[in-house]
């Protein structure tokens, strides 16, 4: 059965009616959505999808937004052909489902994507952003991958990396004040640990009144009160990438 009584918080928001301006390509053993700006650039951003997978129009919308700001954007299928989560799935099965899709087990795929960006796209400065599941993946990569310059973790699930906070690269963390998935006490705890252990630039920002998914799973016009924060989150993401790439 579906989840009439307890919907997944990730379901809150909209599936955009958006086709994308990029193209799907084969990158090694995985598929990916790629969009390139008109002018040549050596800057690229890897976009890591949420539980709804690499084909979600919302995520491709953000990838294309990066391209309009001068970046090569690539959104690979980090589930490597496994089925993405569907809103109709039973939320009671989610924990078992996500165990087969570990956000800290994407290094092989990231290496393939980095090689593609360098060899096929001429990218030398590469950052990464990610949403929810992908936000946790960003934190993982910022802790261990030496080839990325910076990252933006957007409502990444903190509890997946509770014991590691020595980031290698500047990282921006975006959180929503009213996120059912990530309570504010977890965000406070993360800030304390980063302050103790992190030696690179970082920022943790909480957006008032917002819920999980607000940066990429809400239309700007869904609620006049939300619009400034949706736009601010996206602008902050771009500004962070501009600063470190």
> Tally the helices: what do you get?
6
Main beta-sheet strand count, sense and barrel state:
8 strands, mixed
Query: Could you state the order of secondary-structure elements as H and E?
Result: EEEHEHHEHEEHEH
Strand order within the widest beta sheet: 1-2-4-3-5-6-7-8
Mean pLDDT, as a whole number?
89
CATH architecture label name: 3-Layer(aba) Sandwich
Helix content: 25-40%
Main location: cytoplasm
GO molecular function, one term: hydrolase activity
InterPro entries: AB_hydrolase_fold, CMBL, Dienelactn_hydro
Organism: Irena cyanogastra
Commentary on this structure:
With 245 residues, the chain is an alpha/beta fold. The chain has a single domain, classed as Rossmann fold (3-Layer(aba) Sandwich). It is 31% helix and 19% strand. It contains six helices and eight strands, in the order E-E-E-H-E-H-H-E-H-E-E-H-E-H. It has helices at residues 57-68, 94-99, 107-121, 133-144, 184-197, 227-244; strands at residues 23-27, 30-35, 43-48, 72-76, 125-131, 150-154, 171-176, 202-207. The protein has an eight-stranded mixed beta sheet, with helices on both faces. It is globular and about 45 Å long. The protein starts with 22 loop residues before the first strand and ends with a helix.
Helices and strands in order:
Layout: E1 23-27, E2 30-35, E3 43-48, H1 57-68, E4 72-76, H2 94-99, H3 107-121, E5 125-131, H4 133-144, E6 150-154, E7 171-176, H5 184-197, E8 202-207, H6 227-244
Parallel strand pairs: 3-4, 3-5, 5-6, 6-7, 7-8
Antiparallel strand pairs: 1-2, 2-4
